[in-house]
Amino acid sequence: MSQSAEARAIRPTAILKPGKPPRRYTLEEYLRREARAKERHEYYNGIISKIAMATGPHNIAVANVTAALVQSFTAHNKPYLVFGSQQLVYLPELNFSLYPDVLVVAESPLYWDENEVLLINPLLVVEVLSKSTRTYDRVEKFSEYKTLQSFQEYLLIDPYHCRLESRFREEPDLWRESIVTDLDKHITLKSVGCELHLTDVYRHIKFK
């Protein structure tokens, strides 16, 4: 695969019409447009990229992991907040604004803006993989999230196969990877001190 073809396969912003340079927007312009938009868009240092439509298994996995995390934190009286897929995360070093599928904040959320739209202190970020962006989510998006000092763990969920992958920051530049593929097992989320059972994540999902 050529370098340009590989880029198109990874970064969503690469799916642009050839020839004419894309228009660049300020962050403020993006937020005003996004507030009125019927569909969600992410922001990459001036370039606005539409988010692809999610499939049923993707949405079920998002709902399941959100419910499981909330239930675990409530049962153990842990001071973590869970946000759904409508919450924007802002990466100041890159001037990116992204919509994770699920994210967790320790105690109190911090925002870049006065309107409390752009969250900047996620502890745990969860991405449910899609067929069109799975390479980007696993590689480049992970590198982008790492620019946030608060970011401690990355959980990737495959909605079509039984596979959970966690990457935990043990030291500033050392990440430990854990992969679980057995439906009867669980994965330990070290950043929030809880176990996530795969039967809960994949409830109501039928593998082909």
Question: Would you spell out the secondary-structure blueprint of this structure?
Answer:
Layout: H1 3-10, H2 27-36, E1 41-44, E2 47-50, H3 56-75, E3 80-83, E4 88-91, E5 96-98, E6 102-106, E7 118-119, E8 124-128, H4 134-138, H5 140-145, E9 153-158, E10 163-171, E11 174-180, E12 186-189, E13 194-197, H6 198-201
Parallel strand pairs: 4-7, 8-9
Antiparallel strand pairs: 1-2, 1-5, 3-6, 4-5, 6-8, 9-10, 10-11, 12-13
Outline the structure in words.
The protein has 208 residues and is of the alpha+beta class. It folds into 2 domains: 3-50, no CATH class; 56-201, tt1808, chain A (Alpha-Beta Complex), CATH 3.90.1570. The chain contains 6 helices and 13 strands. The strands form 3 sheets. Strands 3-6-8-9-10-11 form a 6-stranded mixed sheet, covered by helices on one side. Strands 2-1-5-4-7 form a 5-stranded mixed sheet, with helices on one face. Strand 1 (41-44) and strand 2 form a beta hairpin. The radius of gyration is 17 Å and the shape is globular. The model is unreliable at 1-9 (pLDDT under 50).
